[in-house]
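Quick look at the format.
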Amino acid sequence: MKRGGDRDNMAPAGAIGSRTRRRAVFASAELGRELDKATFKAKQPELREALLEAQFELAERRDFSVVVLISGVDAAGKGETVNTLNFWMDPRLIETNAMGEPTQEERERPRMWRFWRALPPRGKIGIFFGIWYTVPIVDRVYGKSDDAGLQAAIDEILRFEAMLASESTLVLKYWLHLSKDRQRERFKALERDAHTRWRVADDEWERFQLYDTFRAVSEITLRRTSVPHAPWIVVEGSDARYRLTTTARSLLESLWARLENAPPSPAEAVPPKLPELKDRNVLRALDLTGILPRKKYHRELGALQSRLNLLSRHKKMAERSVVLVFEGVDAAGKGGTIRRVAGALDARFYRIIQIAAPSDEERAHPYLWRFWRHLPRAGHFTIFDRSWYGRVLVERVEGFAAEADWTRAYGEINDFEFEMNRHGIVVVKFWLHISREEQYRRLKERQETGHKRYKLTEEDWRNRMRWDAYEEAVCDMVARTGTSIAPWHLVSSEDKYAGRVEVLKTICETIDAAL
């Protein structure tokens, strides 16, 4: 961010830029626009019918979802606008989310968790009343963050909205605006009416005293986050009829524009191809020769399970949680390793999430949605048997995801894991590896053993034919998503005993370091 002469500088917040510059975003929403009652009454039936038609077309096609953010200044009519949209359209096809102060459950997860859970599926409209911009703006106004903190939040939101746009979501952001004088008049009018007096509390008047600061921070935020795939629409809120008609018509036009045309795609920054190392790479360099004798294995396994159990009950774990990610080649022993990890934990405080092909519900949401919703609360563990890395492994190799989708996924995954880490979630990722020859031996053993035959599928044999393609994908994955906050642990499972002990030892050491 520029310093000194930068007119967006937010310190002090009350003196951001010149008055002319500050009025740029909101000036057109302070002109006193009004819509007379007769015109409003005449336009309403046609507008409502058109909205319903577009809504039903969206529901029938199920090509994309719609996220509508309703925000703005106090008393600008946000609640009335949300209620009217639900009344004018079919509320069964709308998911309305009033996001107030986070609940205890929500505070125990990363900040965006509650928004991810509420994303609508394709074919539906999700209205958010109380949005992901609220906390960054309020924190900046009240001095809980600085310029850099606000910019970091803006950058995070821009990446999130770009991901939504790339995952077939139409994002529309409405800012309902009042000038300072209009807001004061609105507060006083509400206070004069006994039926609406309750709507103006002390905190509204407190925020009114900071109107100029809120305006300045909000204007900078809107200017930096209004992009083609997620634009801000600033609507003058002083006249209810004008506000409702303008918002509804904008929504209608945006819906039909998307229904009739291909979506504008955010700029794709495709990472350059990594150099090919045919003879030596991180997998081929892994030592697969280690062997752990059975007696030593049972002795070390018990000691490590005991240590993990004690760590899981450590008093500091009340404020932390753990996400364990298990990936690996078929027959590498993920299931057996997970059982030994789970055997050290209290069943009340962990969940094992086995990831298979996405369900219809999961396919109707952005691909990270099904992983965000399983993040653990404080004091808990979530163990993923396969994970979000399917996007850059099986979906890449098998052609289930377009190149543009799996290449941008590296950055989205890093953002996801950064959000977990920032919230205090300990992320431990494992790739369990065996040789091609050992894999063949284990698959044949499954085929010939009754109680193991259920583990074997035709897909296991087919995947062997693409060993080299998967090897390249794994090496790219490790290179692009092995970060200091969530490194990859490549584990030799050629000897199952040695692999299980190494996994448990790594988990214990990582949690111990975090506590």
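Next, a different chain entirely:
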Amino acid sequence: MVVKKSILNKLYVVTVLMTLFFGVILFRIFKLQYVEGSKYRELSKINTVKNDTIFANRGNVYASDGNLLATSMSKFTVRMDVMTVKSSVFEKNISALSEALSGLLGKSPSYYKKKLREAKKRKNRYLLIARNVGYNDYAKMKTFPVFNLGVFKGGFIAEQQTVRVHPIGKIAERTIGYDDYRGGAGIEGAFASYMQGENGWRLKQKIAKGQWKPINDVNEKEPIDGHDVITTIDVNIQDITHHALLKQMEKFKADHGCAVVMEVETGKIKAISNLGRTKKGKYYEKRNYAVWESHEPGSTFKLASLMAALEDKVADTSTVVDCEKGKIFINNRKVEDSRAGGHGKISLGRVFEVSSNVGIVKVIRKHYDDKPEKFIEKIKSFGLDRQTGVKIKGEGKPFIIEPKHKIWSPISLEWMAWGYGVSLTPLQTLAFYNAVANNGKLVKPYFVRELRVGNKVDKKYGTVVLKEKIASQSTIDKVRKVMENTVIRGTAKRINSPNFSMAGKTGTAKKWIPRHKNSNGKMVSGYYSSAKYVASFAGFFPAKEPKYSCIVVIHEPRKELGYYGADVAAPVFKEIAHKIYTTTPVDNQFVTDTISYPALNKSYHNYYAKMRKYKTIMPKVTGMSGMDAIALLENMGLVVKFSGMGKVVEQSIDNGMKITKGATVYLRLS
């Protein structure tokens, strides 16, 4: 009885404990299901279900003619887990694998054999084999010995990523730009939000072996592709510009430079090349110098000085300027011409053509020394104090010195006259020259024509007129004439061609070296270098009905090889103009099998007729404009001295008389 009672007591205890145990289980189930259920369901989702991003296709960048400039492509980084490969398989196939890698990637078989053995020794499970492998090469590598065994037996690891590529290579690379870990630059950086698109997503569930499969048959959110950007770049003109600049940069071993071609009427940038030199002497698109780099332009700024004097009617192209012997001093600072002995007394038009520093400085000093603000306001009226406003980031700011500035000095006005003490980017200078070619209309340069989604135009960009007229038509006509003469008989006469016409201005400027520490650690004050120069040429073509404007700026050519704008930059301009003439159909170029320019021929018919007739006989120049008479007589070998402005009313040697080369003739102008 006692034993039975003991057994029953034990049974009761066990029953109570079991009841409590099951009660706790039921409580926990209730709590998990109803109290903490949402929490654990969420944790389960995190570990077994995920939103897989479906990346949108980034928009492409196209040239104006449809050529692809930038697009997205799949690239692979190939690695190897050497520890998953059996030692017997590794030893049997290492030579064959090394041979295959050598054939595809270029380095010797012994290099890869050593690399693989060292990785095996170090138990490397993530050995880098190659980066940026294209799909075709990736597919080949999958078939190589060992790699063909797959991930778990052959250790083949391939990581896919999307990269931006430029189908035309490095040409215009900096202007096409990028938008990545380096930041945003060029067209890609400026239009990043348009090109990026909107990513989609799809629910996936984790299954065996760490793999994921879609839960549904459709995407939860479809990706929206980015916009395509259609630029104004012409691939043919871009190729011409790039190689013309590169050839000259290599010839003169220059530090860096740029060249830009712009459509006169519209402001479309048809080509832009920016080249910088590496330590090994190679050139690549280092920075967008044309848009970013603001520098002292030198003699290309003389166009603005000449136009200011003409607009204010304080001088004319026929005004006589005494350039003396090519050297003057202003406040103990020397202004000197490049020609030894100077140019003597010549017309203001001729001052521009031969780029006389003394001549332009004397004219500006004479008429603006007591009122420099008037000259500066005129310069500003040409738009030279404002950025162009191009979409590309990082445009340099122009600087026009004024009396209110702390650095203004008694020589600031005079130095500004020939392009020192002011600062402009090549693109800002080009916009000004383009306005002269465009009969005074200042248009905004632009790189992008339109944005598209598929074949649908989403947004268009067109010509933006910044100012209808920067100067009177009279001034525009006169400066265009002297710019044409600069190529025919001035500083740029070596690039003159009988087959096509050009107009422009050479520039040569000493570089300012800022305050710095020298190699000995001593602080050196800023100074203008006599060893480092900036050579430039800006102009347009054809001369009569301009289609394109162009600027070439080359920094720090080797001085012993040449540094003048006429020698370094102008030939690039000529090559660009010549090749565009011969490869690009342009209605107003008048290019035929026998090249002829009716407008040009008509303008100079009388000039050349007299030249042929009067080789040793003095022609009648009374009644002719002073500029034309001077040009005619100087090309006959005579030394011309004159006074006044306007038309010739008196000549010291009567027409019909025999003359000898080097004789002096005096002209009096009305």
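Residues 586-608, 610-614 have pLDDT under 50 and may be disordered.

See the schema section for token definitions.
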